[in-house]
Amino acid sequence: MQIAILGLGTIGSGVYKIIAGQTNQTKKLQVTHILAKADHPAMLPIESTDYDAILADPALDAVVETMGGIEPAHSYILKALAAHKHVVTANKAVTALYLREFIEAAEANGVHFYYEATTGGGIPWLKNLENAARVDDVQSFSGIFNGTSNYILDQMTKTGEDFDSALASAQALGYAEKDPTADVDGLDVANKVRISGAIAFNTAPNFALPTVGIRHVSAQDIAWANDHNLAIRLLGEAVRQHDRFAAVIAPTLVPQQSLEAQCPDNFNLIRLDGPTIGELQFFGQGAGQLPTAHAIIQDLLDIALNVPHLARHFNRTLKNDAAMLRGDFIWRDGDTYEYLADRTVGELIIRQNEHPQASFLRIGKEVNHESLQIRRLFNGQRQSVQ
Amino acid sequence: MQIAILGLGTIGSGVYKIIAGQTNQTKKLQVTHILAKADHPAMLPIESTDYDAILADPALDAVVETMGGIEPAHSYILKALAAHKHVVTANKAVTALYLREFIEAAEANGVHFYYEATTGGGIPWLKNLENAARVDDVQSFSGIFNGTSNYILDQMTKTGEDFDSALASAQALGYAEKDPTADVDGLDVANKVRISGAIAFNTAPNFALPTVGIRHVSAQDIAWANDHNLAIRLLGEAVRQHDRFAAVIAPTLVPQQSLEAQCPDNFNLIRLDGPTIGELQFFGQGAGQLPTAHAIIQDLLDIALNVPHLARHFNRTLKNDAAMLRGDFIWRDGDTYEYLADRTVGELIIRQNEHPQASFLRIGKEVNHESLQIRRLFNGQRQSVQ
């Protein structure tokens, strides 16, 4: 199977390296073209800056897109599919935006568009989600989808440092980019929740998705959580019942005695629930060169070995009903922590826009509310908590 | 795809129930025969006691073996394969013993022998292990493979009760059988580690496997572990390096701040490590009617959809080298806890045979030995610990 790699950055180089290693079934794979940047000196004889010439090679079977970003990734993927080349990508932003278009173009041209590496890095999350959905109507999924923000929250918990200091150490280690927006503001998680939701529920990925990141989580919040035997994790969560669903992303309080709280460093931990499979969780390297490249190789092998993925057309009409994820929150304003019962993340986002100095944490469903030392007298009543 | 179920016990009934539900892709499956016991009144018109007549049905595609035990399961599986019927089983004992024979018979007859449900219940462990091995030489795997013993250890930890009392509550809940030997003495884990090891390392499953269960774990041990911020879990573990490997099963000390310690109730948690995929862990229902039946259905769908599994012939010659899992232990004799450095599980088993009142715990590799308040002065020196 002959492969072209578009973009020889971290992930693209990892794909090249694993295939060059020729371990086990990767012997079936061969990189025959690399699309290099025009302003970048070629390092390998197979590098080229002429994408049309690469696609014109009749021996080429598949294109690996690891350029990132929306354009030209979007048009390059469509061009490859139109040229009857399979496409495998790690690009979550372009996949979340154009998944349906890519799948339709692939089917129209008799090739595959596979995207395991977009979500969960080395964790075979999408494949296992697809397999579960062969039997079960998946009722919910949730998890830690972003390693950078998990590293920051874990560091804040272990050292007591504040967000800016933990972010700086994540940047020094190469876990966070210079502009950390996508990671710390939940945008990266949003792309992954959209892709997962599209597969789990067979619906279009552009659903409403209230998204809160971790920028407002303070050292004080972490200490407050710790005093209540809780930890803070950035969770993406989606639920479905019959023809209704909802999804949110928010910093969430979880019990210290839980898998989520024990998910360390930059690891990911993602869960699904189905009526027959029960609860299933996956833990591993959610990013990084070799784990992400490994996921791309797995997609390439599925193509080489003719392993079909679940065929989804994302055409199920579901009602997005935020009330399904209505729940309780902790609201901080200055040094005061309040308990807010029975709200949606969307309502809290609006409230926070009016109080920019305040912030809030979702209370995870595994949290024992007794541990918050709160008596909830009636629906919606706020009580100060210690 | 037409299916015969051999044995309508808990798991067989679960398979019948899921297929009868006709959800999603299970619409491709149809149960057309059930092999019933001769002394059991037939409940369904498709029940029969004539196995030869079932296999003689030319429309039959696959046999699901959920009888358990070694015979007649072994000869029934071979008979089905000889009749060119695919076989899917949940029977770990017969699979661990005859895996190579079954695979060879399946290949000789142009059909498949699939056995996902033998290991990890609803967790798609074997499939993911196989996929990882398509790219990586898996370096190690380990985990909590038995829900019954995990439930007992978790109960002992939560309530402080002793082994007999926790076993009785597991039996009352249906998590443990009347004769709990296979679960609490590590024999069930041994079958699963043999099957996993055969796939991971492509070697015959009948390798030497020092096996210790949890019968000797006392309430006092649990309290001692808790005093040192540790928990006790029954772990199976296997490692490989080049042409050498080793595997053991033993009650193991793990940090309370770890995924293993947070694996509650009767759940399983299984891990693999590979050079490119890194660390990957799977958590879920390791037993139970619907999760185990779900795993059988997944194998049936792979056959129906022509999804190939990794072809293994278990013919790699590896040296079983117990020294690779040499490590440190806590030895209890009466009220005295001692630290034993640099031993093998096999050496400890011999020592315990000479001191039947004593017991031992393996020290897991994630344990910070400082937390045991031990200074290890030189290799092999024992020190009493508090």
UniProtKB/TrEMBL annotation, chains A, B:
Could you tell me which residue ranges the Aspartate/homoserine dehydrogenase NAD-binding domain spans?
Answer: 7-116
One family from Pfam that matches here is: Homoserine_dh
Question: Which pathway is recorded for this entry?
Answer: Amino-acid biosynthesis; L-threonine biosynthesis; L-threonine from L-aspartate: step 3/5; Amino-acid biosynthesis; L-methionine biosynthesis via de novo pathway; L-homoserine from L-aspartate: step 3/3
Q: Which reaction does it catalyse?
A: L-homoserine + NADP(+) = L-aspartate 4-semialdehyde + NADPH + H(+)
Homoserine dehydrogenase catalytic domain location is: 124-301
Tell me which PROSITE patterns the record gives.
Answer: HOMOSER_DHGENASE
Q: Cite the EC number.
A: 1.1.1.3
Q: Organism's domain of life?
A: Bacteria
InterPro entries, per the entry: Asp/hSer_DH_NAD-bd, HDH_cat, HDH_CS, NAD(P)-bd_dom_sf
The alphabetized UniProt keywords are: Amino-acid biosynthesis, Methionine biosynthesis, NADP, Oxidoreductase, Threonine biosynthesis
Q: Which GO terms describe its molecular function?
A: homoserine dehydrogenase activity
The name this protein goes by in its record: Homoserine dehydrogenase
Naturally occurring in which organism (per UniProt): Lacticaseibacillus baoqingensis
